[in-house]
Structure formats: C-alpha cells, structure tokens
C-alpha cells in the first residue's frame, strides 16, 4: 500500500498514512512520486489560508515520479507514448476553460477560475 503525507485539516500536523492503491481511470496514468517540493501554497494550505480546500488533501503539486501504469493515454511533449518506468513530471493545473482572459490573453492557465490543481483542489480521500 502506498504511503502519503496527508493534511487532515488546517493547523493540524501532517500525517503519514497508508492509502489504497489507486484505481487507474480511463485516460489516466499512475505515477509513483520520487520527489516533491513544499511551496508557499502548501504553507497556506497547512495554515488554512485558502478557501474551498477539500481536506484531507495530499500536498505537493510540483512532483517528479516514475510511471507505474499508463492505459495508452499519456504522451510526452514529442507525441511518444509514455512507458511504465519512465521518469516524468507534469503540469499540476488542468481542466481549464480555454475561454477566459487568463487562458486566452494572459496565457496563464494557472490563474483560470475553472482550473483544477493536484495537491490543492482534490481531496486525499
């Protein structure tokens, strides 16, 4: 069973928990985290300074990992299928709208109001 650092609630100690092995969804990739950093957002999450965070969460949205499984869904920047065993990193922001000012004009999808962010907007449950 994988281990993860989990923020259970604001202003509570981070706990290391055993979690069930994730179920690979269609179009998904499972990556075993090798390295992850703590950034300012993680500090704000721990202190409860961000609204709408679905605690418990697994922090760390800047990661490098080893691909464990790929259901023929993930391709690298050159269009090659990402193979199990490959070392990978990924953009933590996705599901942006492609229509707002941030997406179209500023080219800053990380600010899109519709965005989803690993380690910020997803619960660890």
Automatic annotation (TrEMBL):
Keywords: Oxidoreductase. Signal peptide: none annotated. SUPFAM superfamilies: GroES-like. InterPro entries: ADH-like_N, GroES-like_sf, Zn_alcohol_dh. The keyword Oxidoreductase applies. Residues 26-120 form the Alcohol dehydrogenase-like N-terminal domain. PANTHER family: ENOYL REDUCTASE (ER) DOMAIN-CONTAINING PROTEIN (PTHR43401:SF1), L-THREONINE 3-DEHYDROGENASE (PTHR43401). This is Alcohol dehydrogenase-like N-terminal domain-containing protein.
């Amino acid at each position: 069973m994988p281990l993860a650092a989990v923020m259970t609630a604001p202003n509570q100690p981070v706990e290391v928990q055993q979690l069930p092995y994730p179920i690979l969804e269609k179009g998904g990739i499972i990556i075993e985290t090798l390295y992850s950093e703590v950034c300012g957002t993680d500090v704000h999450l721990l202190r409860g300074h961000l609204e709408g965070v679905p605690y418990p969460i697994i922090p760390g949205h800047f990661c490098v990992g080893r691909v464990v499984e790929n259901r023929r869904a993930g391709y690298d920047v050159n269009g090659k299928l990402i193979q199990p065993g490959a070392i990978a990193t990924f953009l933590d922001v996705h599901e942006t709208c492609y229509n707002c000012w941030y997406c179209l004009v500023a080219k800053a999808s990380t600010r899109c109001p519709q965005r989803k962010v690993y380690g910020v907007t997803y619960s660890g449950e």
